[in-house]
Amino acid sequence: MNTNYPAEPFKIKVVEPIAMTTREERAQYLKEAGYNTFLLNSAQCYIDLLTDSGTTAMSDNQWAGMMLGDEAYAGSRNFIHLQEVVREYYGFKHIIPTHQGRGAENLLSRLCIKPGDYVPGNMYFTTTRAHQELNGAQFVDIIIDEAHDSQINLPFKGNVDINKLQKLIDEVGADRIPYVCVAVTVNLAGGQPVSMENLREVKKLCSQHGIQVMFDATRCVENAYFIKEREAAYAHKTIREILKEMMGYSDGCTMSGKKDCLVNIGGFLCMNDDDLYQRACELVVLFEGMPSYGGLAGRDMEAMARGIEESVDYHYIHHRISQCRYLADQLVAAGIPIVLPVGGHAVFLDARKFLEHIPQEQFPAQTLAAHLYLESGVRSMERGIVSAGRNKETGEHYRPKLELVRLTIPRRVYTYAHLDVVAQACKDLYQHRSQLQGMQMVYEPKFLRFFTARFEPVVQKAVAKPSAEPKVAALETA
Fold it and tell me: Residues where N6-(pyridoxal phosphate)lysine occurs (predicted)?
């Protein structure tokens, strides 16, 4: 087990009390939420690991920047600053601010996709695929096969399979592939990085066929850290240098600033192509706002510009990824199945292996997330069959090989002591996992169902078994 966990590279200036609830209270909260952790209120959660999106603790420097917001409707100085920072750190010529990452995904999809297109990517992401499909494209998974196996331990498990990409080009033609979407890192594979070598190969192949490469750059700084750690040629490069080179192997990106830009709201779309930028400027006014604010206040853009500068600090990113490893090491030592290797923003429990007795159609990851909250107050997120959604043609569930529960660590929010609590909660639940029962979906929205779907247990009550050990009680139906 790794025991070299760095201390927090910050000191705490402001504190926020967190909820301390009883199991009885949590049982009622869970029932009211339809056993969907997304529908719980934050005040009902003890340690909230639902997401790292927008949950960052901003720095004093960012908060100071918030007081310098230029709220002019067009051409604010905060936009000029953000534009300068993006050009300096990422290298892109043009930037269109958006209210968050999916705003950028919407713009990119509308600008580039036509019905009948194919968009290859290194594993789907929920909102990204939804925008692609709504605009008439078919997503094609071109990630390496090993990414779909939680127990294979590879340094760059997020890599694109170049042969799969070439095969798709040969089958459908380059003119039906508007761009290749490369996520750095790959969220649903467990936060897995992509190597610089692989990015270089993808860009070379796409350039030969006139296909654009667009990054989902949401966690690009985490990806840069893994390159520094795992590719020998980059061991002595700075995070900033690696990040700039990474971005050079793309034609643009979508960015959710709520992750690696260290802010609570905001995102942007970047590109180098002048024509695409002009079209984006025309479209953004319909969905977001003026091209120089795109749904954001000036103060939000200032905080994001400063967050980008802070994000490349080695001590910050080293501590962040070390927190993930600290939690993961405790779970592995206890024999709890997780996705290997550990990624940069979360630890993913392998619900399929954790709850081997629950079939996938009874939503084992949803069940596990609900019980983890019930027993400990720790909120997590399902990333399995519920998140995967349905095939719009057949109506059948997509059945991903990875059925996961994501324990997502917010940036600069929790300490190692909080992670000790999470680890112990997982251990306690694992000891009594055989008592857990599956769920059925009782309400299913048309789009992105994992956000608002509602569930109830398949069986109302578990059979009590005499034991001196504490029991995990069955969830009650609404």
Answer: 259
